[in-house]
Design goal:
This protein is α/β, with parallel strands linked by helices. Helix content is 39%, strand content 11%. It has a domain at 6-245 and 395-469: Alpha-Beta Complex (Amidase signature (AS) enzymes), CATH 3.90.1300.10. It has helices spanning 6-14, 20-33, 45-60, 102-108, 144-150, 171-178, 195-201, 219-222, 266-281, 297-312, 331-342, 345-357, 364-386, 404-407, 412-419, 424-429, 458-469; strands at 40-43, 72-76, 112-117, 184-186, 205-207, 252-256, 285-289, 391-395, 433-440, 446-452. Strand 6, helix 9 (266-281) and strand 7 (285-289) form a beta-alpha-beta unit. The longest helix is centred in the C-terminal third of the chain and has 23 residues, at 364-386.
Amino acid sequence: MLGQTLQEVSAALKQGQITPTELCQKCLSLNKKTKFLNAYSTVSEEVALKQAEELEKRYKKGHSLGDLDGVPIAVRDNFNTPGIEITCASNMLKGYVSPCYIVQKLLDQGAVLMGKTNLDEFAMGSGSTDGVFGPVKKTWSYSKQYREKTKHKAHGENEDSNWLITGGSSGGSVAAIAAFTSSAALGSDIGGSTRNPAAHYGVVGFKPSYGLGSHHVVLSMLAGHDPKDSTTIQDPVKPFTLPSLTDVNKLCIGIPKEYLTAELSSEVQSLWSKAANFFESEGAKIIEVSLPHPSYSIVCYHVLCTSEVASNMARFDGLEYGHRCDINVSTEAMYAATRREGFNDAVRGRIFSGNFFLLKENYKNYFIKAQKVRQLIANDFVNVFNSGVDVLLIPTTLSEAVPYLEFIKEDNRTRSAQDDIFTQTVNMAGLPAVSIPMALSNQGLPVGLQFIGYAFRDQQLLTIAKWFEK
């Protein structure tokens, strides 16, 4: 049962092949065995078992099971969940419990909450290495042949010099799925935080169109307006299933020439070409397209993202909730000490940068100009899709996952800029994108490829990705 698709798990529960409690217990047991992965910040064992038992009581009274009834899910620790603390992997929020909306939608559909998953502090990072709970580790290791060739040892819980990063910042959610401790997991994706670790872990990572859902996944259950989120679309959204695509003869797939960068590993480049050739051999039309402005995207993103961080983080002042220092000399001193103790260097660095860009004398030259560049990037995609292209095909990451000690040689800001090069422009344009496992590298590690679709054509995008995956 563990390791099956969400649809297969749901069908098995409906058919009585396994009960919600039995499945919950299996996931909890496996979670204990894989604790060294550090996938969870909080394991909600009592909550999960209680939810599963309540479902069984309803079922015995004649209630039929729905699509998510009894299905184990995990939720990244930057989503509010009922009765469970949200920490964002930060000292600033330890012990804070908040009301929720989007997770409640899943729980109302019968999903069983296995726990909150680990991440980079406040989702700021690309390795899941910079949170207060420590780094998330990876179930994958180098292939036996590669280890023998390079004298690498298989990574394990006591071999910090050899284990691999998960990617980030949703590494805990991806690790929870890959370790079979949940059937689905929520992440968030501001610059690639869901797709990046999905590629490194060999699972599917999906970022929906901006505004389609309240920044979440498990799309058919979560899509639609959230009254507490003004960025979500107002129009009703009909739940959709993915039709079976029998052939790709009518598809036009674009290959953006600007993404053939010098930093791209030769192996990932080869697999990218192999995927394009496969589509072409099956009858799809493959064309080279141009996206003129992606080289400006990372800088533009840095300005906009840090500006929003600085603005939003102003609420963490130690007064109403979250961490508060013991200094009582003055209000200003309390603010400063609270934020210094509560935030790590990566978060503070982004706050400082954002405040600089938002200064009155800098606002037009940085924030406003970055918004104009963002529109140019979005227009690039619109022009390509209006030319008849159905989806774009690009790599998800520059290479397969790297060892932890190699990864942490660079600072958080530099690592994020490097690792988000293929994912981040999608966020600037508000488009849907999905990372699909492509193959194993020569080192025996997963490589993911990314499909990008037009805004709100999520169903078409996922249908094509499903065909490719099969």
